[in-house]
Amino acid sequence: MVTARAAMLFGPGEDFKIETVEIDGPGAGEVLIDVRACGLCHSDEHVRTGDMPLPHYPVICGHEGAGEVVEVGPGVTAVRPGDHVALSFVPSCGACPLCRTGRAFLCNEGAKLFNVGMMTDGRIAHRVGGEPAARYAQLGAFSERQLLAESSVVRIDPDVPWTVAALVSCGVATGFGSAVHRAEVKPGDAVAVLGIGGIGASAVQGARIAGARQIFAVDPVEFKREQALRFGATHAFASLDEAAEEIRRLTAGAMCDSVICTFSVMRSELLEPALGLTGKDGTCVITAVAPAKQRQVDVNLFTFAMLNKQIRGCLYGSQSPRVAIPRLLDLYRAGTLKIDELITRTYTLDQVNDGYADLEAGRILRGAIVI
Fold this sequence. Notes:
- By secondary structure, the chain is α/β, with parallel strands linked by helices.
- Helices cover about 25% and strands about 25% of the residues.
- It has eleven helices and 19 strands.
- Strands 3, 5, 6, 10, 11, 18 and 19 form a seven-stranded mixed β-sheet that branches.
- A hairpin with a 2-residue loop joins strand 7 (about 125-130) and strand 8 (about 130).
- Helix 4 runs parallel beside helix 5 (about 200-210) and helix 7 runs parallel beside helix 8 (about 270-275).
- The longest helix is centred in the middle third of the chain and has 13 residues, at about 200-210.
- The protein is globular.
- The chain starts with a strand and ends with a strand.
């Protein structure tokens, strides 16, 4: 058994608290790592606000992480002590029908993501004050050390900076894939990205790299609009209404081939305006997380059908993490994909609440905890 300091939530609406967690050693198919960096993704904020209620508290949050392998359990073959790894909130067992058909982002092991026990055998391996502690998405990367299933780590080259490895494990992969894989952006396309955080900025980059001719970014925060232009957007607008008028003019009424929704929270009232930006035979991709209790959305179904539009959900950029992470790091090394520039500020583990306050206030594009 080892101990580690970790940022935990004890219920919705509360701040993160630093507690000492007891963690078992690795069992079969498990990996113990020293966490080196973790991104401040908005998904963890959804847990804190209650938009994404969890079945068990307390919970160690954090799911966009990277670290060094300390110890491995019996049967582990993908990594060994000393290896550097990116964490993946999407597990890849490699054996289920979805993994075998190239859709590892929908791996059946994902059904266990919010279990309290380990993904491997269901046992309680994390405790705080003698009580079971859950880990968000079976990762819990806001921790100095963490015990994970082998299926949740992807080995990376040791020259990759920790913060880069952390961000590519979730936000960069999700945003980039939303444009390249789910929206299927093609050379010459007109694309709108709605909401410019770490995921939205990565969607802008994906659209740019895919060859989009026009990339329209929409965000009410001036700093984020400036960053969108830095990452490849051709135009930036402060509101959906402003965007609709200008995009209609700039596209001679054709509107966008694809619209990618990367809002901080996907409210139901945002879908119809997003579809309004979507042109004939266009695709509207929903990447942003909606409140779990939201059940209804109003859509003009007549226009939707008559203009042959599509609405597509998107998890992890609709790509396998074991394929996406190495490819994206290759693009980073080549200077094609900007990741260092996404990180506005770094924080210590004790500053996690400050980081999310900065995120909520629009002062950062992406923050990272460095441990």
